[in-house]
Amino acid sequence: MSATWPSIPYEAWIATCDTLHAHTQVLGKLAATLAPPEPQLQHAALRLTARGWETLPLPAPDRSGAIVVALDLRRHEAVVEHSDGGEAGTALAPDRPVGVVTRAVLNAVRELAGPVEIDPTPQEVAWTVRLDEDTEHATYEPDHVREYFAMATRAAMVLAAFRAPFRGRSTPVNAWWGSFDLAVNLFSGEQASPPSDDFIMRNAMDSQEVAVGWWPGDPRYPKPAFYAYAHPAPEGFPGASVEPGAARWDGELGLYVLDWDDVVASADPFATALQFCRSVFTHACAVCDWDPQLAQTAHGTPPPVR
Questions:
Q1: In this structure, what DSSP letter does residue 298 have?
Q2: What's the predicted TM-score (pTM) here?
Q3: What is the pLDDT of residues 7-35, one digit of tens each?
C-alpha cells in the first residue's frame, strides 16, 4: 500500500455508492439464505478481501459442494465460483442497472449450484424497489469504486489490528450489506436485552458488546468516518473525552466518531485510527463494568503470542 491514505468525499460518489451498496445486498441475501444460522446473525455477514466484497463459502443448494459469490472491485465484475471449479461472471459497469446484475448473479448461482430464491426487498436503505427490478441504481464509476476500495481496505486493517489481541469472543471484520459498513464486535460474555424487538435487533444485539467500525458516508452522516458504540450503554458512556483529540461524541447518531479526513491528515493515519478504537473500547469497558483483565487483553496484555 502507498503510505498516503486515499480519500473520496461521500458527495463525490453518492450515486455509485448507492449502486455498489445495492449490489452487496444481493450477496448478503444469498448468505442469509444459504449459510447455517449463527448467533448475532454472523452467518449473513460478508467479508472485505483483496478483490472486494465476498461471501464465505456457502452450501450449494443442490448439495454439490460450496459456492462463493463476490464483487470483484479490481476487475469490476460480480463472480460466482463453485468448489468444483465452475465459474460465471457478470460485469459491473457504468449504466448497468442493479436489476440486470442481480438477475445475472442469481441465474449463475442456479446454473452452477441449483435452485435458490432470495427475498429481493432491500434492507436498511431509503429505497424499496426490488433488487431484481431495480433500474434506478445504474451509476458505477470504476475510479470512484477503486478509491472507496482503497479506503475500505485500510480501515479493515485498522479494525483487524484492534481485534487481534482480544482474548474474549469477537467477530471477524465483517462487511455489513445492510448498513454498508465494516465493523468488529468484542463481547464481554454477558447477555443483554436487545434495544427493540425487530428481527435484526433481537438477534444481533442480545449480548453485551463494544462495536467499532467504519463507513464511507451515508445520508445521516455524509462523510467517511470511524465510529464506536457500546451496548447496552450506561449513563456514563456518552460524552466522554476520547483520543485522539479530533474524536467526539455525536449525540444524534449515538456514537463516537472520528472523521476520515482527520485520520488522513494525521502524521500516522494507522496509529491515529487504532488509538480511537482502543480509547473508546477502554472507556466503554470502564463504564460498562467489564472484567478488567479481559478488557486489558485488547491492548495486548497478556500478549497474544509468546
A1: G
A2: 0.95
A3: 999 999 999 999 999 999 999 999 999 99
- Do residues 7 and 155 make contact, with C-beta atoms less than 8 angstroms apart? no
CA–CA distance, 258 with 68 (Å, rounded to integer)? 33
Burial environment of residue 157 by CB neighbours within 10 A (0 to 12, 13 to 18, 19 or more): middle
- Exposed (0-12), middle (13-18) or buried (19+): which is 77, by Cβ within 10 Å? middle
Condensed to tens digits (0 to 9), the pLDDT of residues 29-50 reads 999 999 999 988 899 999 999 9
Q: Tell me the C-alpha to C-alpha distance, in Å, between residue 102 and each of 105, 119, 134, 160.
A: 5, 12, 9, 30
Helices 14-34 and 98-113: crossing angle in degrees, nearest 10, is 30
Q: How far is CA 212 from the centre of its chain?
A: 10
- 3-class secondary structure for 275-294? HHHHHHHHHHHHHCCCCHHH
Instruction: Yes or no: say if 76 and 93 are a contact pair by the CB < 8 Å rule.
Output: yes
Alpha helix ranges (H) inside the chain: 14-34, 98-113, 142-163, 199-204, 260-265, 269-287, 292-296
